[in-house]
């Protein structure tokens, strides 16, 4: 069953996953001028350049293909979020939750490290998005200030009583079932140069790297150590842990033969497998298998804490949203972009620009033939090579069994990562 899930205020999700700036500027609205005013919040200006930067980040270079009507709609949505951000930042200033320069620097360094990207990649993405170092620091300052504000106002929430925890569990027992499935860890090798901290940039280098890792595993090197060092996937931040995956989820996203092998009671725990999914090469380690559905109780490891976290987080999310609603009602907001649409409702065309004449043939040029890896081999003691599997689906989301669904703010990432 689905748990009641109060989402965090849209503002928090937005500022945790993108990097936009609200800055000072002229007070008069100026059409088509980056220094023009898109809106004001209690007299503080949000410039048109801030809106355009946000559009550029979200559209990832596709903004030129939008119709004037679509572009105007996107601008209004982005501007509304920027307004909400500025309202909350002004509240943070009044509450004294603005971070120090040292905290800002530490957070930026953490974000860059967690992105897994090189300094050159980050610099390029920031340049493409029109993000300067000054703008980045200003944005991170706002992120931290608002998060500290939310932590401050939600700090008054008390843990639920035992009676409430038990009532919640008794009313949702169907959700507390650990389905038949497996727990996996992975080392992911990406043949494409996608910037996830990967050093392999084509099929050949990916196959060589995967085979080298297999040899090291056969020689007794620790799987976790290799995952931390070589995995080109965000799971490396969790030591390669994918978490527990039910058999039903595996059937949706794993090759059929691999799912059958993993669920076979005769397959040894700790065994290594290789496969290909979504164009990436996976070296998987079977860590645990549950052969039958297990009904969990409040005494099962982690269940009581999961219920507690779900109840507390739901209250925090509702309190955050309520606080923001009051702050928005109290703010003096002038939305000049919205006024322009109201005053000129018939000026926006819904027709998209025609694609370039050579767009249809753009995928034909520069094709490269890469080595084809050997067929799937599920024996770690053999000469394992990554698998070619064109029918493999995407990697499943690894979620703990029966954990109540709770929306939490995503970690902020350096510019250019907003929609990755």
Give an account of the 3D structure:
The structure is a single chain. This protein is of the alpha+beta class. The chain folds into two domains: 10-158 and 302-350, Orthogonal Bundle (Triger factor/SurA peptide-binding fold), CATH 1.10.4030.10; 180-292, Chitinase A, domain 3, CATH 3.10.50. 43% of the residues lie in helices and 11% in strands. The protein contains 13 helices and nine strands. The strands form three sheets. It has a four-stranded antiparallel beta sheet with strand order 5-4-7-6. It has a three-stranded antiparallel beta sheet with strand order 2-1-9. Strand 6 and strand 7 form a beta hairpin. Mean pLDDT is 77; it is low at 1-30 and 359-420.
Quick synopsis:
The protein has 420 residues and is an alpha+beta fold. It is 43% helix and 11% strand.
Number of domain modules: 2
Query: Regarding CATH, which class of the largest domain?
Result: Mainly Alpha
CATH topology (level 3) name of the largest domain: Triger factor/SurA peptide-binding fold
Estimated helix fraction = 40-55%
Radius of gyration: 25 Å
In the predicted model, the low-confidence regions spanning at least 5 consecutive residues are 1-30, 359-420
- CATH-wise, what's the superfamily of the largest domain? Porin chaperone SurA, peptide-binding domain
| Average pLDDT level | 77
Most strands sheet: 4 strands, antiparallel
Note the overall shape.
globular
SSE string:
HEEHHHHHHEEHHEHHEEEHEH
Residue fraction in strands: 5-15%
